[in-house]
Amino acid sequence: MLAASMAGSLQGAIFVLVPIAGCVLVTFGIFQLIRDLRSAGEKKMLGRLKEGGTASASQETRESILRRRAREVRESSLDSAVGKLAVVPKLQRTLDQANVDWDAGRMLINLSGAALMTGLGVYFANAGLIATTGTIVGVFVMPLLWLVMKRKRRMNKLVEQLPDVFELTSQALRAGHSLASGIHLVSEQMPDPAGTEFGRVFHEQNLGIRIEEALRNMADRVDLLDVRFFVTAVHIQRQTGGDLAEVLDKIGSVIRGRIELYGQVQALTAEGRLSGYVLLALPVLVFFAELQINPKYAGMLIYDDTGRLMLFGAAILQLMGYAMIKKIVNIKV
Description:
- The protein has 333 residues and is mostly helical.
- Among the domains are: 155-254, Receptor-associated Protein (Up-down Bundle); 269-329.
- The protein has helices at residues 2-36, 40-51, 56-61, 65-74, 77-83, 87-97, 104-124, 129-174, 179-189, 194-206, 211-222, 225-240, 244-268, 270-293, 295-298, 300-303, 305-329.
- The protein has 17 helices and no strands.
């Protein structure tokens, strides 16, 4: 009897995991197809913006020696297979931008294992297919959402620090210091993230890398348009000459104006963002209030199969509506 029950549970778990794995593989295949269908002109333009020249030296110096050595030590066949996925470099860049010292391939492996183990535990607790699927997706997605939010906060803080960074660098140049000394001053005087990122630039050029390559590595690492303006200005000044301090002052004033305009846009779109929060939270609050007032009426959405499907569909539609509202009020400056 016990063996038959365990066999039935294992068969049910297989029936749950196989469709989930199939959906993941189909989604990844669609993503790869869309990625490969991008036009050649767009690829060439993005390559010129991101590389800005020969990429051989930049590729060699993009990762530190310590990280590469640690990766070689713990590398296994599974790590090598996951590392070949197209999403791993993008995830690693997000980790670097969030200043999280993790390996992207190892993170994906750990998240997948944790999600599957948690999903199996929820399934064997007779929680149902919808709860199991939601648990697996939640355990896998929530750390990624936290990482994206951390990266966004850090990059926004870096943009706010850039005018002070350029002003400090221009003052150092006017005082007779070299650009490397100005970058070193920024790394000592400014807090994270500006101090950390410019500190990496200073340490890279101390190790023998040209300062232009070190700045290009920083531009690729943070992937901000304002930083690329700065790097381009340095490259042009190195090739043709000119007053770099004055150029940095102008770039800083442009960024200050953009930050001010962004604040005005945020104030004008505050009502729309608040409407999105209210429309997202109001059905949830009403549902829990109905559970307290009339449990039999609201419990149909929890204990009935059709009700659970309706509840799941409502949650998906709520998230889609919130995403649409956020897309409308998200005005790029």
